[in-house]
Design a protein that fits this description.
The protein is mostly beta strands. It has six domains: 44-178, Distorted Sandwich (Glucose Permease (Domain IIA)), CATH 2.70.70; 190-372, no CATH class; 377-458, Immunoglobulins (Immunoglobulin-like, Sandwich); 466-557, Immunoglobulin-like; 559-678, Chondroitinase Ac, Chain A, domain 3 (Sandwich); 684-778, Sandwich (Immunoglobulin-like), CATH 2.60.40.1220. The strands form eleven sheets. Strands 1, 4, 5, 6, 7, 8, 9, 10, 11, 12, 13 and 21 form a twelve-stranded antiparallel β-sheet that branches. Strands 14, 15, 16, 17, 18, 19, 20, 22, 23, 24, 25 and 26 form a twelve-stranded mixed β-sheet that branches. The radius of gyration is 34 Å and the shape is globular. The termini are far apart.
Length: 779
């Protein structure tokens, strides 16, 4: 009887079963994942949640390595729900409805698949223009996983790339990296800077009211980013972080947004952001894309510091990115008590840790030490002479400390050099100190237990001999949402801080506290309020060491806008901004001041410019700006509303003309300086091609069009005809080019190409060129 060895048979059967199980498991696993949307090496140029002016970036920008024409693929079975073509925005785009009810969006395509192209071309012919917005029936164009839907390109805005979005069943843009569309990423995020943002009139960062960014350096020994030294904070503040991520394939060229950010204070997590999904809305009240200005820090960007992520949640921020953290969370209270959310910091040093993480779990951290402290202060420093004795008096504020060190020093050379006279500790509110000898100038300095200081200089009063020669005082006002900071400078040392009087349109005159910030520099905080009227008259009086007086006068304008709406109008009535309800997140006090301006080359200014403030507060959506042109002005249709940029150049906004009211209007999303400029220069029209004699009976027809003023903003303002017949052309605004790829061969002989283009002010250019098709011997 033959002996049968069962072990090899058993092993072979087991091995086959395991292999079959593995294959089936892989197929099932892959069936639950999507296909990568582009037939090209996986790499990103931008990721979900990045900042774009006024909105979030709603998807992935997939790298095409500077090329066009890569096939874009159906990530799963589904059908084409929508197709859109436009010279702007997404350019040529496909909205592909997946079988699981999610939506894939492909944008900036160079062309569609043949089946889609036929439907689009038919619609373009029907409307006689390139731009169409088609909604298709579910069964009209179906596609299976891996089918080619079109080809990558650069239509609309941007360089060659594929913009890919993944929207959930509620139509919300969802982070594709969380749903299987991953790229290789082994690199942790880079944390560049951390910033502290004062949130009201009594809040300071290192003694200043404006936001302050601190650079960070990588520390190999500790394995994290650090800032040397400590930063002093006082009042109610927010923390923001400047950070970017990189992925392996594009690490040398492209900076991406992080996925998760965390803020810890003394080891306790106080805030977290996860960029998961952001909702589109049918109107601005429901749309979440515009709330990017609350997630990122508007003030820091206005200061030129770049893009920072807020690690605190402001009023009006209804984004669903923050998990359990509510309005007010993440805000730090130093010297103030929290109103229910946020975190109160006791006086002293605290350690802040920020963690940044990408979708693949690569993580970086940064640490910053902060000093929570109410700074000490000196007010009303003065010199008394009693016989041969000299006394220095001052009011002292110990801040967070129970006592302070007081240093009395003197100078006989107008503050060039100082001699220490006395030093002592006090907890008293007022001091009166006798000094030895007579000196021209005295300085009172207080120092708390943390080493923070404040000072004031003073001198004996002398007989005033008259007004100061030249201009003794200058003053600049920095306006914030609900207060202004007056920065006063003197040309020479003063006997005492300037006397400042505030006379509101309503209510009583007041004399605010004046803080000294430098030898000849002073600061006053003026808080806004609804009961003060629209105008506050400010007068400043100072006396130099020779007894000469200096005067300075100015006005502060405050017009309140609330969540219910409001109007901000210039005093001359020629400029105004109308706010509908819910256009601001919190009440703000605004001003509109006329200023002489100069237009740009070929665009002269008509009338004055108007500076609206505060200019670092974002609006919820856009508001209506109206500028009135001079009575009887005959060329109003050639006017446009322009915004002055930080480099003093002008940017066109709009030119909605209302002859009846004599205004030109535009919609704006923040305050700035605006003016009416006159544009009577027609667009540039050049390089009409082809010309002369050509052999190709299927030439590309093209022309260069460009406008330096109001611009070319409507497709219908461009006309292109061949032999008198209108053409459906494609317009590339970034390349200043229009072109047509003919779908039929031209007859031999002469042909005439004509292009007409009109800018937003109605200035027209028109040119024609003639060419002859001669196929020669190779026909």
């Amino acid at each position: 009887m033959q002996q049968i060895c069962w072990f090899p048979l058993l092993w072979n059967g087991l091995r086959t079963g395991v292999a079959l199980f593995f294959i089936l498991w892989c197929q099932n696993a892959l069936a639950g994942e999507y296909l990568w949307p582009l037939a090209a090496p996986k790499a990103l140029t931008s990721t979900f949640g990045e900042y774009r002016p006024g909105r979030f970036h709603a998807g992935l920008d997939i790298k095409t390595w500077g090329k066009e024409g890569y096939p874009i693929l159906a990530v799963d079975d589904g059908y084409v729900w929508r197709v859109r073509t436009s010279p702007w925005g997404y350019g040529k785009a496909i909205y592909f409805q997946l079988e699981d009810s999610y939506l894939a969006v492909y944008a900036h395509l160079s062309k569609f698949s043949e089946k889609i192209e036929r439907v689009v071309a038919s619609e373009q012919i029907r409307h006689g223009k390139f731009s169409v917005n088609l909604f298709l029936n579910p069964g009209q164009i179906r596609a299976s996983r891996g089918d080619t839907l079109g080809y990558s390109g650069s239509t609309g805005i941007g360089y060659p790339h594929l913009h890919f979005e993944y929207r959930d069943r509620a139509g919300r843009a969802t982070n594709p990296l969380l749903h299987g569309f991953k790229v290789k990423d082994t690199i942790p995020p880079t944390i560049q800077a951390v910033a502290f943002v004062p949130l009201d009139a009594r809040s300071l960062v290192d003694g200043a009211h404006s936001a302050k960014a601190l650079g960070l350096r990588w520390n190999d020994r500790k394995g994290r980013y650090l800032h040397s030294g400590s930063t002093s904070i006082q009042g109610r503040l927010g923390v923001a972080v400047k950070v970017y991520d990189r992925a392996d394939a594009s690490q040398l060229a492209n900076r991406l947004a992080p996925f998760r950010l965390r803020l810890y204070v003394d080891g306790r997590e106080v805030y977290q952001t996860r960029y998961t999904r952001i909702a589109y809305g049918v109107d601005w009240r429901q749309d979440e894309m515009g709330l990017v200005e609350l997630d990122r820090n508007f003030e820091l960007r206005a200061q030129g510091e770049g893009t920072f992520h807020n690690l605190y949640r402001l009023t009006g921020n209804r984004l669903s990115l923050y998990g359990k953290f509510k309005i007010g969370d993440g805000i730090l209270y130093s010297g103030d008590k929290t109103s229910g959310r946020g975190m109160t910091l006791s006086p002293g040093y605290h350690l802040l840790r920020i963690e940044a993480e990408d979708v693949n779990g690569n993580r970086s951290s940064a640490e910053v030490s902060v000093l929570a402290n109410t700074r000490p202060g000196v007010e009303g420093a003065a010199v008394e002479s009693v016989g041969d004795s000299v006394y220095v008096t001052a009011n002292i504020d110990c801040g967070s400390s129970s006592s302070v060190q007081v240093h009395i020093s003197a100078s006989k050379d107008g503050g060039v050099s100082w001699l220490d006279l006395k030093e002592f500790e006090t907890s008293e509110r007022a001091i009166r100190v006798g000094t030895l000898g007579h000196h021209g100038l005295y300085r009172v300095t207080v120092e708390d237990i943390f080493g923070e200081t404040a000072f004031q200089t003073c001198a004996p009063q002398v007989i005033r001999t008259g007004s100061a020669p030249g201009s003794l005082l200058t003053c600049r006002a920095d306006t914030y949402a609900d207060f202004a900071v007056l920065e006063i400078r003197s040309e020479r040392m003063l006997t005492e801080p300037p006397l400042v009087r505030i006379r509101p349109e309503k209510g009583d005159e007041r004399v605010p506290v004046v803080s000294q910030t430098g030898p000849v520099a002073y600061e006053v905080v003026v808080e806004s309020g609804p009961d003060q009227g629209r105008v506050l008259d400010v007068t400043i009086l100072a006396v130099d060491l020779n007894g000469n007086t200096g005067h300075y006068s100015m006005q502060l304008h405050q017009q309140m806008v609330t969540t219910a709406g409001g109007i901000v109008r210039s005093e001359d009535g020629l400029a105004e901004i109308n706010f509908d309800s819910s256009r601001v997140y919190e009440p703000i006090y605004c001003g509109a001041v006329p200023k002489p301006i100069v237009g740009s080359d070929g665009l002269p200014a008509v009338g004055l410019g108007y500076k609206f403030s505060p200019d670092h507060v974002p609006f919820h959506g856009k508001v209506h700006l109206k500028l009135r042109y001079p009575n009887g002005y005959k060329r109003a249709e050639k006017l446009g509303v322009y915004e002055m940029k930080p480099d003093s150049t002008w940017s066109f906004l709009d030119n909605v003309l209302d002859i009846e009211s004599g205004t030109v209007s535009a919609r704006i999303s923040h305050f700035s300086t605006y003016a009416l400029l006159l544009d009577e220069i027609p667009p540039i029209l050049a390089n009409l091609n082809p010309s002369g004699v050509i052999e190709n009976a299927l030439p590309t027809l093209s022309a260069t069009i460009r406008d330096e003023g109001t611009g070319i903003g409507r497709e219908e303002d461009i006309e292109m005809t061949l032999d008198g017949n209108p053409l459906i052309f494609e317009f590339d605004p970034e390349e200043d080019r229009i072109f047509v790829h003919l779908d039929h061969q031209l007859a031999e002989g002469a042909h005439k190409l004509t292009v007409s283009v009109k800018d937003m002010c109605g200035n027209v250019s028109r040119k024609s060129t003639q060419f002859t098709v001669h196929r020669g011997v190779n026909r």
